[in-house]
From TrEMBL:
The protein's annotated pathway: Cofactor biosynthesis; ubiquinone biosynthesis [regulation]
One family name in Pfam for this protein: ABC1
An MF annotation (GO) of this entry: ATP binding
Organism listed in the record: Kushneria phosphatilytica
Protein name from the UniProt record: Probable protein kinase UbiB
InterPro entries named among the record's database cross-references: ABC1_dom, Kinase-like_dom_sf, UbiB, UbiB_bact, UbiB_kinase
């Protein structure tokens, strides 16, 4: 750990990452320390802030590289120039040996590689920080790929994540404005994502779910999982062929209709989010291929389902209504939806919030629809909401990241892509189905099994309900009687207190008359009467 800290310190110094922290926003002691720090003696070498940060992350290793890749999708946190530079980060590490790969497979499966596979390629197809992939053939003749978790990566990840937490907390101490960026929450989200990628059984389950959702759709194909040979550290999957979606020249050469391809990408995204409520959240070009067997009717092939997202039913409704209200320029409705959903505090004033949204979104809507970025719209809304104490919504951050990827991909394929024109009919149809008779019928079908199970219990439930009502009535009568008794007791005590005080006054009056006893020696009855009345009032209950 100490050696790792020393190396990180050296990399920060070498690439002058201190310049990324604005001095004018630091407290006084922080500015003073930064000004006298020896790090300032090192030159910046005329590189941009984003380039120096990218090079530093690449030097720190794959865990920091993946962290930088995650930050590149958080346009709500990073300046645009730095985010663009971080997108150039490449998760490339030397492959581990084929002997180590075979040992890992055999340890996971409890059988030799030759028993499990008819053929296993020693050279990997791809190698990344967390896993590498080998081609293989099953004894049935089926061509597959074998994904293997990198040995020892778990310990490296835990160590580097602990360091990231340390840096995040340190940033909060030396730079108060960093609270707006929520660095600890950012690291926590990254940690959850990273460790999800270590569990290949979870990735396999996600893949099977996505395949099932699109099994009757010509838009998207998901390769099948071979479950008998899948474990937590090894996953065996059908091998696919296709053109990488980023290879535009190859797509054009095959005569693929790029407009249709781009629009289908948008349709797939909205289908995953709203129809299935289960979306592939790592849809960067490296995970997407194109089946160009029919160039006029192309389809997508998706791999690597380690990161997926879903929304609550309420979030789905609010998100769809937010998007539609935004494009209608109904900013008050957008503000009210944020408040009703609990995304911002209940005390938020809708008029003030709507005015803030208008100031951010009006410039966006001045552009032609084909130039409007959905991802930028969401980012603008989230940034505005943060000023009104919006809590970080991890599921919405994943959604924004995925939408930015899909949008960027779509406009790379077809620059004139009008995302709103493509999405609007789908959203309106989905909302109509959700609120109309079809939606009611679908919800009834979902609840039907539970209702059927409860039908035989209805007499018992009715009897229990009636008994509960009768018990509550009896308890209410008893409580009423007890309250009446208590009220009478309190009234009695109040009257007794008044009598006691009056009795004391009469006795005091008798003592006051005491000096007059000489005059009253022949007629003492007034004193005796006063004292007697006082005693009677005191002892009377």
């Amino acid at each position: 750990m100490l050696w790792r800290l020393i190396r990180i310190g050296w990399v920060i110094t070498r690439y002058r990452l201190d310049t990324l922290v604005p001095l004018d926003r630091l407290p006084g002691y922080g500015r003073w320390l930064m000004k006298i720090a020896p790090i300032r003696l090192f030159p910046t070498r005329q590189r941009s802030d984003g380039e120096r940060l990218r090079l530093a992350l690449e030097n720190l290793g794959p865990i920091f590289v993946k962290f930088g890749q995650m930050l590149s999708t958080r346009r709500d946190l990073m300046p645009p120039d730095i985010a663009v530079e971080l997108k150039r980060l490449q998760d490339q590490v030397p492959p581990f040996s084929s002997d180590q790969a075979r040992r890992s497979v055999e340890e996971a499966l409890g059988a030799s590689v030759d028993e499990s596979f008819a053929h296993f390629d020693t050279d990997p197809l791809a190698s990344a920080s967390i896993a590498q992939v080998h081609a293989a053939q099953l004894h049935s003749g089926e061509q597959v790929v074998v994904k293997i978790i990198r040995p020892g990566i778990d310990g490296v990840m835990r160590s580097d994540i602990a360091l990231l937490y340390t840096f995040a907390r340190l940033l909060l101490k030396v730079w108060p404005d960093a609270r707006r960026l929520r660095p600890v929450e950012v690291v926590k989200d990254y940690e959850a994502t990273l460790f999800d990628e270590l569990d290949l059984q979870k990735e396999a389950a996600n893949t099977s779910q996505l395949k099932r959702n699109f099994q009757h759709s010509p838009l998207l194909y998901v390769p099948a999982i071979h479950w008998p040979l899948t474990r937590r550290s090894v996953m065996v999957q059908e091998r696919i062929t296709g053109i990488p979606v980023a290879d535009i020249d190859a797509l054009i050469e095959r005569g693929v209709d790029l407009r249709v391809l781009a629009e289908r990408g948008v349709e797939i995204f909205f289908t995953q989010v709203f129809r299935d409520n289960f979306f592939h959240a790592d849809m960067h070009p490296g995970n997407i291929f194109v089946n160009a067997d029919n160039p006029r009717d192309p389809s997508y092939v998706a791999i690597d389902c380690g990161i997926v997202g879903s929304l609550t039913r309420e979030d789905q409704d609010y998100l769809a209504r937010n998007i539609i209200a935004f494009f209608r320029q109904d900013y008050y409705e957008v503000a009210m939806l944020h408040i009703e959903s609990g995304w911002v505090g209940e005390g938020t004033r809708a008029n003030e919030f709507a005015a803030a949204i208008r100031s951010v979104c009006e410039p966006i809507l001045e552009k032609p629809l084909k130039d409007i970025s959905f991802g930028q719209v969401l980012m603008g809304l989230f940034q505005t909401a943060r000023r009104f104490n919006m809590e970080v919504q991890p599921q919405l951050v994943l959604l924004q990241k995925t939408l930015l990827n899909i949008e960027g991909l779509g406009r790379t394929l077809y620059p004139e892509l009008d995302l709103w024109h493509t999405a609007k009919p789908y959203l309106e149809r989905w909302m109509h189905e959700r609120a109309g008779p079809k939606g009611f019928w679908e919800e009834l079908k979902k609840q039907a099994p539970e209702l059927v199970q409860r039908v035989p219990q209805l007499p018992v439930l009715a009897h229990q309900a009636m008994s509960q009502i009768e018990t509550e009535r009896r308890q209410r009568r008893e409580q009423t009687a007890a309250l009446s008794t208590l009220r009478d007791t309190l009234n009695g005590l109040r009257r007794g207190t008044h009598r006691f005080r009056l009795g004391l006054m009469f006795i005091a009056l008798a003592f006051v008359w005491q000096p007059l006893w000489g005059w009253l020696s022949h007629q003492p009855w007034p004193v005796l009467v006063a004292a007697g009345i006082g005693l009677v009032l005191i002892v009377w209950r």
